[in-house]
Amino acid sequence: MRLRSAAVIAALSLPLACSRGAGDDAERLRARPAAIPPPAFDWAHPAAALDLGADEIAARLGSFEWSAAVEWTVSRDGDEAQRVRAVERHRVRQAATGEFEVQAEIDPGLGAGSDTGKDIVWAGGMTYARARYAPFRERPTDHGRDARRFRDESFQIARSLARLLGAALELRPAGDAEALHRPARKLLVTLAKEAAEPAATAEPAPVPDEDTKRRRAFLAGLRPQSAKGELLLDAATGAPLEVRLAVAFGVAGDPKARATVELLAQVKALGAEAAAVVVPKGALPDERKAAGVAAALEAAGLKKRPEEKGSAEPAEDAGEE
Prior knowledge:
disordered C terminus, 8 helices, alpha+beta, 21% helix, eleven-stranded antiparallel beta sheet
């Protein structure tokens, strides 16, 4: 179900690399009794707003719609100058009841036909998924797990970018504002003058393949050069209503390499103005095996039906209880 980030595709083309991951706060929220409100936001640490997941924000604000656009550019100067530009677009509709829909589209900058996308819906206790232009299918074995992971990779893209900045990220209060007719607090994004170097991480076992090594080396070598932007946080709850970031990185050990990221993420609608999350119309059942191929084999006598064998074939999921 995972959709490869445009940053990874762009980086591999140079070859540099960038990837991101996101956590899932759904289990923590499900463990919290419904009558207990979410904890008050700590305004002494405003960057924590970027750690809030979709479930957490829905608990604070109610149902919402959100969208984001992010542009990645990775380049290398010199005699053999190279530049790759990739664009991502993300949309999330999150219901206060826990149901959600997420859409992600990626144009990796590799020419016509290279763009990809996925739509995921979690509604009525079932995951529905489709690739771009394909019909929705049920995913009964998912139980919402991979659906939430996919949603969080989209929704927490600002958090992933903030983590790439690490200790270099600095937020400065810039007065009051308004977003979606709600009072908000504005914070300006800057780089700390004296940011600590990223801590070295131990190489996990087993030893990764060469592409993975290259991606990890690129991430470990990122050095923030500039950052600007602003956050609009809901004054009552601290939930991020709008995030604008423009960041540039150099790469340690490769002075000709440079990566830039521009992000705009914002909540578009709240409460009753957010469209309901519904089961996709015409969703097809899960199909693990190609029915047409199986029928052709049987017609040719290459696959006997269970009743002709005298015993039933084992269930597909036998032994996986």
